[in-house]
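Q&A log
Question type: sequence-to-structure
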Amino acid sequence: MADELVGDYDVRPISLRRMMTIDGLDAVTPGHRTYGLVELDVTLAQARITALQQAGEQVTLFAFVVACIAKALGEQPELNAIRSARRIYRFTDVDVSLAIEVDTPDGPHPYQYALRRAQTKGALDIHVEIAAARARHAAHEAIGSESRRFEAAMRWMLWLPRFMRVALLRLTTRFPLVVKRWTGTTFVTSVGKFARMPGFVIPFAAGPMAVSFALGSVVDKPVLRGGELRNHAFLAMTVIVNHDLVDGGPAARFVARLQALIEGAVGL
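Response status: OK
Response body:
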């Protein structure tokens, strides 16, 4: 009777990387977050990206948005910051932590990659760098230097009890220079690459960074301009601000600048 109620199933062990992800999420502190749900008109940007692709250039909307985020953070270093107890470290270089999905024996898995000095790079440069990181993984090489360090740390940390692993990871978040070396100064994730649907992504956001971002899908919406009703493409973006480090005014000015860069297709 029990078998009929349960039906068919299988049991699989939690992968090494999934276990470390769980430990990492438990290690970071929740902080005090403010969420901004922003719709950005990317009609002009998409048109220019399409023209570049037709001309043989390798560029994507995701790479362009990352480039705009990095440029805006480079202009406003108060948001390119990491907290350490009673001190705030503000950095000149914008290092963007990205989750690059690659194939592994356990199935698709996001690998962390830190895009260094992203404020100096354009959309084409960023796309090429992400593609090169994927190619290194396909060739069984480390995606980046932080990936090598992470792999080495995992090998010995998994021999420790879980409470010790979480405690060690939590300890590292108290040192901004360590955080920057391992994960950068901000984080950008995107689910719009995998599904096209309206709505915003509300990710788990914690730790000592001042701001992080989640990109949703691009959807068409009618816009009335100049007496004409036309469809425009809008990108759903969630901006997560750490209120321990950033007040509402600077955060609003940053989002306004980011909007101007993206909607103006600056750099394309």
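Response note: DSSP finds nine helices and eight strands in the chain.
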